[in-house]
């Protein structure tokens, strides 16, 4: 079946991707609809979404899809599992591979070893899902091969006993944000808010954005558009940026010490609005 990636999403650099849709590799029927969705990036999931008995078949399914016209990221099994090496050996030959998400990342060398088994330049998303991973986040962010950090909320909560409240997860999210900045990476990707859609998901996105995270995982295609809206500059921010930049272009004079930081923020909002196609939305 031919796969036509959402053109808008296909043209967006992954460093700016807001919504990251996990599509289970347990069934190839999941791939096409995921790629046609509004998700900025799509991840074929060979890890949590596939039981042990189905790992080999899922791997074959993904490689076939990525060799017959589809393009996607792939979540591979953790380096401590029996599947990691086989996952990478198979994916290293797949022409449609955009990058991999490494499950259960806890050490920087795990990312580097993963990158070394793939085609040169293949980006690796480090999915951090444990207390050890959070504490090593800065080293992971600096590791050769790391493209972006992501937060595995469910496994982190199981590991630590933390609740799903923003306060309980604030430390972990902050560590990922600071580590990403230190490692000169794009903003980190927050974990999914399972089952949430509409206003509930928008509220979750407000938490994500307030922490400094710029992407969010999701399990439902219907969640992607809401995440894109929730993690984009608002209409009022775009209007403010447009007005400030117009005034600056017309010769506005620096009035105080906050002017240059505000100008930089306006330029960033303008750039994002252009990338996301929001000026005329």
TrEMBL record:
MF (Gene Ontology): lyase activity
The record's Gene3D superfamilies line, in alphabetical order, gives: Phosphoenolpyruvate-binding domains
Q: Which UniProt keywords apply?
A: Lyase, Magnesium, Metal-binding, Signal
Signal peptide from the UniProt entry: 1-25
- SUPFAM superfamilies linked to this entry: Phosphoenolpyruvate/pyruvate domain
Q: Which residues form the HpcH/HpaI aldolase/citrate lyase domain?
A: 23-185
Q: What InterPro entries does UniProt report for this protein, alphabetically?
A: Aldolase/citrate-lyase_domain, Citrate_lyase_beta/mcl1/mcl2, Pyrv/PenolPyrv_kinase-like_dom, Pyrv_kinase-like_dom_sf
Protein name (Swiss-Prot/TrEMBL): Aldolase/citrate lyase family protein
Source species, please? Arthrobacter sulfonylureivorans
